[in-house]
Each structure stands twice: as structure tokens, then as C-alpha cells.
Amino acid sequence: VARRVLRDIMARGLAAGDMISHESAMLERYRVSRESLREGLRLLETQGLVELRRGRGGGARVGAVGAASLGRLSTMYFQLEGGTYEHLLEAWIFAEAALAEAAACNPDLKTRRAGMDPFTRSSFEADDGCRETLPADLAFHDAVAALADNPVKRLLLSSVRAIVATHLIDGRGVTAAPHDALQQHRGIARAIRAGHAARAKQLAEDHARGLAEACRTGAESRVDLPIDWL
Ligand SMILES: [Zn+2]
């Protein structure tokens, strides 16, 4: 049932928030017992793919899934494998470098320009020596990931950043990004725009090392701990 609902969502091109169906219509369509239908929907609800509204007029809506949901799911496996937050940070450095490389390999110059142009200009903040916050810094990395032409790479690699953001940055007193972060973004953005994959990868790796270091300092007590399944 869960697989058929997923296929239906894809076939109908439904987006987050869209109504999938009322229960009665789904019972008719899938020809399964109420119990099986509910079990299938609950399975999807656990993954965040559907939101269930109970009671009269209730039904299933498409939930918002993406890198964050995948990240959340992965933490269970990482925990079982004995992964620590230090392992996570190392994987993050790898992921950001790979995403920058993939973004630079996007064959559409127009798309690369549109995605990276906002980050290639120097800004007052940077010139004033103001430090960007780490959560704000991550917006750039989302823009880089969005340029990766391969959806599997984009989702898989972005899920690592989503875990870092949730577990090590948000609300954990990790505030300041490295002081030259905006300048580094400019360098990465220019390399991606120009399609220089090797350079984009190297610059992104160097930059991510600095970010990881900021996480280690800010979340000092956590990095040696096992990854929690949240
Ligand atoms: Zn950054």
C-alpha cells in the first residue's frame, strides 16, 4: 500500500501540502482492508512523506520530505554503526566538497550563474569584517547543493549537512562562522560559475574544514559522542 501511495504521489505530481485522498476513496482505489490501508499510511507518516488528519473529513496529505528527513532516518543507522559526531563532521567536509564539484559540473551555465551570482558580489558585512552566523552560512551551501545536477548526489550529500545543522549547530551556541567565510563563498561561487570543478571542490573542502572546526569548538562536549537518533 505504501509503495502504491508513493507511486500515486509521483504520478499525480503532488507537492507538499497537497491532499492525496480521503480514506474512503483510497479504500476504493487500493482495494485493501481499512487496517492495511492505515498501516501503509502510518509507515509513510513515520518517514514524513504523508501527514494524516484523523476524524471526519480526515485524510492524507503530502508531507515535506527532503534532505532533512533522509538525515533524520540515517542517524538511526549511524548510531547503530557506532558513528560519532566527529565522524559526521569528517563526512560533512567530504559532502560539501563533492557537492561543489557536482555543482560546477552542472552543464547549464545560466543555471550556474543564477544560483551563484548572489554570492559572488562583495558585501558590506564582509568588508566590515562582520562575522556571519553559522546557520546563515548554510544558506550558501543549500544554493550550491541545488545546482548539483544529480538528484541522488544532491539529496544524499545534503542530508549530512541537515544532520550537522540539527545536531551540532541549531540552538547549540555555535554562532560564528569562520571570519573569512563570505570571502571563501565568493571564491567557491566563482569557481562553480566558471565550471572549474577541481577548484570548486578544493575550495569547498578547505571552507568546510573551517566550518567543522567551528562546530568542534562550539559543540566541544558533543563531538566524541555517538550520533543520536533524533
Ligand atoms: Zn559556508
Overview of this protein structure:
The chain is mostly helical. Helices cover 66% and strands 5% of the residues. The protein is built from 11 helices and 3 strands. It has helices at residues 2-11, 23-30, 34-46, 67-80, 85-104, 109-120, 124-128, 134-147, 151-169, 181-194, 197-218, and strands at residues 19-22, 50-53, 59-62. A 3-stranded antiparallel beta sheet has the order 1-3-2. β2 and β3 form a beta hairpin. It is globular, with a radius of gyration of 21 Å. The mean pLDDT is 89. Zinc ion is lined by residues 137, 140-141, 181, 185, 207, 211.
Question: What ranges have pLDDT less than 50 throughout 5 or more consecutive residues?
Answer: none
Please provide the ordered H/E string of secondary-structure elements: HEHHEEHHHHHHHH
Strand percent estimate: 5-15%
* Count of discrete alpha- or pi-helical segments spanning 4 or more residues: 11
Class by alpha and beta content: mainly alpha
Question: What Rg, in angstroms, do the CA atoms define?
Answer: 21 Å
**How confident overall, as mean pLDDT?**
89
Q: How can the largest sheet be summarized?
A: 3 strands, antiparallel
Task: Outline the secondary-structure elements.
Elements: H1 2-11, E1 19-22, H2 23-30, H3 34-46, E2 50-53, E3 59-62, H4 67-80, H5 85-104, H6 109-120, H7 124-128, H8 134-147, H9 151-169, H10 181-194, H11 197-218
Antiparallel strand pairs: 1-3, 2-3
Helix pairs in contact: 1-3, 4-9, 5-8, 5-9, 5-10, 5-11, 6-8, 6-10, 8-9, 10-11
Residues 137, 140-141, 181, 185, 207, 211 line the site of zinc ion.
